[in-house]
Amino acid sequence: MKIMVAVKRVIDYAVKIRVKPDKTGVESQNVKMSMNPFCEIALEEALRIKEGGMASEVVAVSMGPAHCVDTLRTGLAMGADRAIHVDATGPLYPLSVAKLFKALVELEKPALLILGKQAIDDDCNQTGQMVAGLLGWPQGTFASKVVLDKEKQLATVDREVDGGLETLCMDLPAVITTDLRLNQPRYATLPNIMKAKSKVIKKYTPQELNVEIKSDLEVLQVTEPPKRKAGVIVSSVDELIDKLKNEAHVI
Q1: Rounded to whole angstroms, how far apart are CA atoms 91 and 110?
Q2: Which residues belong to any copy of the Electron transfer flavoprotein alpha/beta-subunit N-terminal domain (predicted)?
Q3: How high is the pLDDT of residue 12?
């Protein structure tokens, strides 16, 4: 069984985001970039499934400009067997990414597609659901536990919902999106990092996949949230209660 995993290159979670002076987006030049944390969890789960003897190959996929190759190298160093880069220069919105994944799935024929539930740069939480809809595959989103039955070709997914835990049983092939509590991603070791540098990464363009990149969205302006007001020190419980009653709702 082959597993395909999405890995996205994003601004590192620890970086303080700065808006560009012209307010067309956020500053990404000379800023530390890394693999999206939810994608790390997705890749870790795929690797654990393979190590458990339930899969034969893990293929990491990233879409975007040439620098995405660095993220794929990280995925290869973590343990992915192969990597695919879809070279696209313009902005990629969830529906376009889903269409590209659909085209890759038709080429690679994986039995399982695992994605992070969302990317920390746009927080869209749409791609997994969209690609499942395009493929007509069952989906298990926000997975906190994944169990595969290779003989019956079934996937059982526990997911967190408002009322507690929900368990889904799906026929393979299927799409799974990962939540934070699914696992703890491993670190890439130095020997594996060195080996990953020499591995070949297969490249496609959207045109080669017969996918037209377009969007109905237009970003007009990006602005920072308003500055948070400074806190105050109160001298008594009564004063605290008074402020909570009369001032807590004021922004």
Answers
A1: 26
A2: 23-213
A3: 87
How far, in Å, CA of 251 to CA of 249, rounded?
6
> In the chain, how long is the greatest CA-to-CA distance?
69
Per-residue pLDDT, 232: 83
Domain regions of the chain by residue span: 2-223
Structure tokens at 122: 């746009």
Which pLDDT score, from 0 to 100, does residue 161 have? 86
As a whole number of angstroms, the distance between CA 219 and CA 224 comes to: 14
Q: What is the second-level CATH architecture of the domain 2-223?
A: 3-Layer(aba) Sandwich (3.40)
Residue the block writes with tokens 């994605």: 115
| Rounded average pLDDT per 10-residue block, the chain, 251 residues | 94 86 83 92 95 93 92 94 91 90 94 93 90 95 91 90 90 94 91 89 93 82 83 88 77 47
